[in-house]
Amino acid sequence: MIHVKGVTKTFDKEIAVQEVTMDVKQGSIYGLVGSNGAGKTTLLKMLAGIYRPDQGEIFIGGEPIFENVAMKRNVVFISDALYFFPQVTIEQMASYYRSFYPNWSDERFETLQRVFPLEPSRKIHRLSKGMQRQVSFWLSLSCLPSVFILDEPMDGLDPVMRQKIKNLLFQDVAERNMTVIISSHNLREIEDMCDHIGMMHEGKIILEKDIDVLKSDTHKVQLAFDEEQKEEKILNDLTIVHKEKRGSVLLLIVRGEKDVIERTIRAEKPLVFDMLPLTLEEMFIYEMGGVGYEVEQILY
Ligand SMILES: Nc1ncnc2c1ncn2[C@@H]1O[C@H](COP(=O)(O)OP(=O)(O)OP(=O)(O)O)[C@@H](O)[C@H]1O
Fold first, then answer.
1. Which stretches make up the ABC transporter domain (predicted)?
2. Closest residue to atom 24 of ligand 1, CA basis
3. How far apart are CA 158 and CA 117, in angstroms?
């Protein structure tokens, strides 16, 4: 559905996005995570056709997105910094969306009023930050977009509203095969919502995987042996992403298949052996450590 090939974007002399290649399947929810300044917003703005890439190409549904007004009418972007016309009411903003987005549905707009309990006659700039976020979701979801691009969209929303919005997104993905790309620093939320994840650092995608594959591929292990040679053998035999020693207990982040890791460790008859699932937040920290981001003594 979305095809990004070798995309680079530079501001003055600073490279914000560097040779990024990624594919997003129709009907999937793709989570874009990364360090501050990694280039997520810049990449999302190129996907939404707001910025023109300096190099590379972006196709949505087989068509280039930049300066493609027809395609942009199917793609809705919620920016991290919301923008509404000055002084407008929700219904005036809805009229604008109705005129621009051909799939706009008055019926959906009315149905969603049950989810977003706001009077359409209210002026948007007088609403709270979270209420303004609600308005942006209300209007965007009424456009029935085929691609929905979201940059830190849940900021300022209360937990009940977050859940309601997640459910609406799931519903549109399931019923209309909508494709969602969402960037967030809230990795728990990304873990809950997304089926695929791209991790960015310093303008590049350093890891791109199906979330289930990623989770079955990396493990947290606690170990203790009666002999140091056994410990050394394990460290040599396994693919270690991160290592920490606490007294006699060794804490490891290990890459590979669960069964193979378990067999390798059990063969050395450990005194202590525990294998724990890794959260996306922990994976993020260790992947970042692997590309030189300062990661020391932060195992939970
Ligand atoms: N309009 C701009 N003009 C100049 N530099 C910019 C502009 N937008 C982004 N940059 C630079 O590009 C780099 C990537 O910024 P971007 O906002 O894309 O990162 P991000 O991953 O979204 O960061 P964060 O997680 O902190 O929001 C940064 O170094 C930033 O200073």
1. 2-227
2. 36
3. 14
Among 13, 14, 149, the mutation site with the greatest number of ligand 1 atoms within 8 A of its Cβ is 14
Number of domains in the chain: 2
Residues with CB under 6 A from ligand 1: 11, 14, 16, 34, 36-42
Q: Is residue 209 part of a domain?
A: no
Are β-strands 63-64 and 75-78 bridged in parallel, bridged antiparallel, or unpaired? unpaired
CB neighbour class for 293 (10 Å; exposed up to 12, middle 13-18, buried from 19): middle
Domain boundary among 202, 226, 249: 202
Termini Cα distance of the chain: 38
Quick: pLDDT tens for 37-55: 999 999 999 999 999 999 9
Q: Are 188 and 225 in a shared domain?
A: no
pLDDT tens-digit series, residues 255-298: 888 999 999 999 999 999 999 888 888 888 877 776 666 544 44
Residues 21 and 122 in one domain: yes
Tens of pLDDT, residues 59-86: 999 888 888 888 888 999 999 888 888 8
